[in-house]
Amino acid sequence: MAANSPPRPPPRRGGGDAPRHEERLQKLIAGAGLASRRASESLILAGRVRVNGTIVTELGAKADPRADKIEVDGKRLMADDLVYFVLHKPKNVVSTLSDPEGRPTVGEMLRRVGARVYPVGRLDFPTSGVLLATNDGAFANGLLHPKKAVPKTYVVKVQGLMADEDLDRWRKGIELDDGPTLPARARLIRHEEDKTWFEITITEGRNHQIRRMGDATRFRVMRLARVSFAGVTHEGLKPGQMRPLSYEELTALREQYGVPKKVRRPAEPPPSARGGGPGGRKLRAAPPKHGKAEQPRRDAASQRGEASRPQGDRREIRSARTDRSGTKPRAADSRAPRARGRAGRSGSRERS
Ligand code: URA
Questions:
Q1: Is-contact 203 154, C-beta < 8 A?
Q2: Is there a domain that residue 324 lies in?
Q3: Which of 163, 292, 296, 338 could be cross-linked to 33 through a Cys-Cys bond (beta carbons 3.0 to 4.6 Å apart)?
Q4: What is the CATH number of the domain that holds 63?
Q5: How far is the CA of 296 from the centre of ligand 1 (A)?
Q6: What are the tens digits of pLDDT across the range 185-219?
Q7: What span, in angstroms and rounded, lies between the C-alpha atoms of 283 and 135?
Q8: pTM for this structure?
Q9: Whose CA is nearest to atom 7 of ligand 1?
Q10: Is 138 within the bounds of a domain?
Q11: Is residue 134 in a domain?
Q12: Residue 168 designated active-site
């Protein structure tokens, strides 16, 4: 017997009102390391996948790995630790997992983590700075949702001498082809010959927003560096390095934006022994009930690897072709107020 949409599980204990975070079954199966995405589709079509006890043969079917029981050939997919990182994206690196043009990507960097971690949002190829990465879809969605109005702070270098009235236009909103920008906070840093350095905090995530604001006001953006995302900074990280988010940062994000859903306290002896503060579970193939654990595509040690590194650990993730110097923006980065600090400091939030 086959059914095309997975039956809902019984209500969870404690009310069952937690929001569902569903993903396509083939993505979940592939993500668990059982098969490629294409092969996972074949497994579904062949009727070898059950959700909450019912065979599902529809490729569009979705399930929530935390709420639903997903089985492939009777074997249950279990959950991996969820992991959260901040990386200092160098300029001239694509912020996707792969690039058809063969340019360096953050994917090359993130693969070293072991878990299937992906970036939370994007930065343009030439933009450097703070990029979060996770394998927790709800975390990424939560921070990227426009309703959350997550603040993102950039240091910008533009061609031309900006006066405060010019910055005022950026503060109030600039008409772009997809509508006016929301109010922003901006402050002048300095003039340098016929160029201007300033800092701006926006709460939107539109494509190329800052560069388009520059074009619309005839102040062409020459350099762009994100120095804070949701209060998390890359302080102490060189371009190409990354570290797990701390317990304090994750707790602050949860308080302010409702994600991650769970923040696990660092194990004793904290905090240097664990770092990362993985906050939940992600699907992986369950070991058989008897006998040896089956090995997924990556080994368990590599799944845990980065997440359980000490908090102070800085991982070099530089691609051979990425820029190490970043002279001017780095100077500007270091001038950016420390007050933005870590998300753990409640007063550090930027609000536009
Ligand atoms: N705005 C841009 O124009 N580019 C970025 O990378 C980020 C914000």
A1: no
A2: no
A3: 296
A4: 3.10.290.10
A5: 37
A6: 999 999 999 999 999 999 999 999 999 999 999 99
A7: 10
A8: 0.67
A9: 123
A10: no
A11: no
A12: no
